Amino acid sequence: MPVIRSAFLFVALLGFGCSSQATLPQIKIDYSPSEDLACSLPPGSPIKEEWKAELLSRQSEFVTLWQTEGPKLLAATEAISGRDFPLQEITARLTLCNAPSESFPGTDRVTINMRYSLRSFTPEPVSMRYKVDTLFHELLHIFLSRHPIENSPLLKEHAAEDERVRDHLHLLALQKAVLLKLNEPDALKEVIAVDSALPGGYYKRAWELVNATDKEYLKYVAELSK
To answer: What CA–CA distance (Å, rounded) separates 28 from 6?
Structure first.
């Protein structure tokens, strides 16, 4: 890692220097039971009324937590990378459909699957804070689509890995850098643990590579930093 870039990264990770909230994208969080109706119609894909009721009752909890944590996450991303989020309003649509959380780069929306945060859905729900970090994860996809990594030696080094693993290496490294910068080790620990238990094993493998050493993640962050 070049000395100048190392020095910049060190300063960015230690000093806060976050952007003004006025320069950050505005995130509108919405849940509409009627929009979930279409995915609940096919056999085997029901959305129970108690799930809807719980999500509606806890939507304000999610919104409040995002309003507290979200701007810090976004601002720290800009401070570490030296790059800006697109200045647009992005709608985060909460959903109970049997589909993964997803981002749609080039659009103004992401979807966040809320099933596993509900006590009415599972006896061991993930925390609402994890779902805030899921929203942050999806916004990082939009951020990285605006600032693509080109000619990455690290991606070439891992050319044999599944594309879904490679697509998340820089993202997870940046997410880790942000959470450590904000002194959120417990949130990071939960993100790694829950991500690593997701089907397919792609997140688990990506986290293994990013966490190969204590400083491994910094190599990826350096590639996307100015």
So the answer is: 36
Tell me the sheet residues that pair with 91: 28, 109
Paired tokens of 84: 């800006």
Contacts of 111 (CB under 8 A, 6+ apart): 92, 93, 94, 95, 99, 101, 102, 138
CA 173, 206, 73, 83: dihedral to nearest 10 degrees?
Answer: 50
- Supply the pLDDT for residue 21: 52
- pTM for this predicted structure: 0.89
CA distance 92 to 100: 13
- C-alpha 216/C-alpha 196 separation (Å) is 18
All residues at 6 or more sequence positions from 164 whose CB lies less than 8 Å from its CB, including other chains:
200, 202
At 6 the pLDDT is: 43
Question: Phi-psi region for residue 123, left (φ > 0), alpha (ψ -120 to 50) or beta?
Answer: alpha
Instruction: Extract the residue ranges of the chain whose pLDDT is less than 50.
Output: 1-8, 10-12, 14-20
Encoding tokens for residue 141? 């996809």
Question: φ, ψ for residue 77 (rounded to 5)?
Answer: -60, -45
Determine contact, residues 25/87, Cβ cutoff 8 Å. Answer: yes
The one-letter amino acid at 81: S
Q: How many residues are present in the chain?
A: 226
58: Cβ contacts below 8 Å, ≥ 6 apart:
117, 118, 128
- Helix (H), strand (E) at residue 165: helix 163-181
DSSP label at 193? Answer: H
Helix axes of 216-224 and 163-181: crossing angle, nearest 10 degrees: 100
- Angle between helix 3-14 and 163-181 (nearest 10): 60
